Amino acid sequence: MNTNKLGFSIEEAVEFSGIGRTRIFSAINAGQLVARKFGRRTVILRQDLEAFLRALPARAPKELPANTIRASAFLSSKEFLGQEAIDEQK
After folding, report:
1. Half-sphere exposure (CA, 13 Å, Cβ side) for 86?
2. 46 contacts 15 by C-beta, under 8 angstroms
3. Do residues 16 and 49 lie in contact, with contact meaning Cβ atoms separated by under 8 Å?
4. Nearest to 12 by CA among 51, 55, 41
């Protein structure tokens, strides 16, 4: 898919964004995503699709139950991040 395009069809917008066709149409109908018509064809401008995606709320990290033990509790920060393996290669 040519991602340098100025406008996308619905199918291309689905592929570019990773959002399903039904959700794209729902966003258009709700006024969250701007779409243009050219005859029977629906076109979504790249900048409108990008603005829509940027406006989506960020997902907050899940809170783990209090009794969950994280791997980082047993490792130093270097071990947890894999830094020792990197340092050994130097």
Report:
1. 6
2. no
3. yes
4. 41
Residues in the chain: 90
What SS3 class is residue 54? helix
Tokens of 3: 């991602």
For 79, other C-beta atoms within 10 Å of its C-beta total 13
Q: pLDDT tens digit string along 36-78?
A: 999 999 999 999 999 999 999 998 888 877 776 665 555 555 6
Distance CA 68, CA 64 (A): 6
Instruction: Give every strand in the sheet of 36-38, ordered side by side.
Output: 7-8, 41-45, 36-38
Copy the structure tokens of residue 38.
């050219």
